[in-house]
Amino acid sequence: MTLLGIDVGGTKVVLVVGDREGRPLARLRRPMSRTGDWRRDVDELIADARRLLADAPGAGAGRLEAIGLSVPGPVDAPRGVLRNPPNLVGWRDVPIGRVLSQALDAPARVENDANAAVLAEHRFGAGRGVDDLVYLTMSTGVGGGVIAGGRLVRGAFGGAGEAGHIPIEPGGRVCACGLRGCLEAYVGGHAWRDRLREVVPASSLVVEIVGGDREQVGPEALLEAARRADAFALEELGRWLDRLAQGLAAIVMLLEPRRVVLGTIAAAAGEALCFAPLRARLAERLWPHQLEQLEIVPSALGEDLPALAGLAVALPDPAEA
Fold it and tell me: Is 286 strand, coil or helix?
């Protein structure tokens, strides 16, 4: 059986033909076309998909079983409609599921990218073997997805799992979403980058790492400086971990997952800089029985996540299979 996974982003698109075990047969990655006309953009996706299906080794041996689309929110997943993503001009109320299903003669499932990511980690990555899982993207912003009782949690309006917008500071910093005091405004990659450029001292190793250009300062440089024991970098990383622990404690108290998977910035920081000190901070915020059983681990999929996210969405919900 053949699956087609598509990950649509604001700047790139990834298509992959694979099987039920998440093994890619062929893949394509290219810049996202943003013509302002969603029909033209989707037609290009369809043309790419047809070429990939024709060229993939073994894909011609069987009918396309299903299509999975990982797309930026907001999404009406049951209807397969992409509502109005801020980074895709002209994409408003796009029935992308129906259009691709009709064009490629296969059922199509659509999820927002954070939900697709937690499905991918659950089926192919660091979330395998657990039925209660939370995944946080920890990249440009802080996206989140939740698996509870083995099933994806979408919520009444399709937006469940938006961990990045848990309020952690009343009246605090303005978040990209327009609200104040969100977790993302303190630990999201863009927000953290902006803060670092404001507060990093010229004497810090962080500035040296970027060749003295403060406009190049960001989380990557800070983590490198922290590995080399720079005082500012370690202090700032500690502040970031304090905020992350604050948000995670709220998530754990509400959902009590068996495992929390952290991606991108946290995964890049690693055990010594992130996961060990994060567990220590959570020990001050959680009940002992929760801490004893909770696992906090890095994402296992790395750069393969976009491709596997689409394939994971193509598969039926395990509870419904």
Answer: coil
pLDDT in tens, 204-222: 999 999 999 999 999 999 9
Give the residue ranges of the chain where pLDDT is below 70. Answer: 58-62, 318-321
85 Cα distance to chain centroid: 15
For residue 62, CA distances in Å to 28, 99, 102, 103 come to 20, 22, 18, 17
Instruction: Indicate the SS3 state at residue 32.
Output: coil
CA distance 10 to 66: 24
Question: Which of 122, 151, 129, 134 minimizes the C-alpha distance to 321?
Answer: 151
Residue located via tokens 């500071």: 169
Structural domains in the chain, CATH included, are 2-120+304-314 (3.30.420.40), 129-299 (3.30.420.40)
CA distance 105 to 49: 12
Taking the C-alpha atoms of residue 317 and residue 321, their distance in angstroms, rounded to an integer, is 6
How many CB atoms neighbour CB 312 within 10 A?
29
Residue 219 to residue 188: CA distance in whole angstroms: 10
Give, in order, the Cα–Cα distances in Å from 60 to each of 19, 50, 91, 218: 13, 11, 32, 45
pLDDT of residue 62: 59
Q: Which two tokens stand for residue 96?
A: 């992308």
Q: Say what the pLDDT of residue 321 is.
A: 45
Q: What is the pLDDT of residues 55-78, one digit of tens each?
A: 888 665 558 999 999 998 889 999
Q: Which residues contact 273 (CB under 8 A, 6 or more apart)?
A: 223, 226, 227, 237
- Specify the pLDDT at position 316: 81
Tokens of 200: 């990093």
Spell out the residues 6+ positions from residue 277 whose beta carbon is closer than 8 angstroms to its own: 238, 241
SS3 (DSSP) at 272: helix
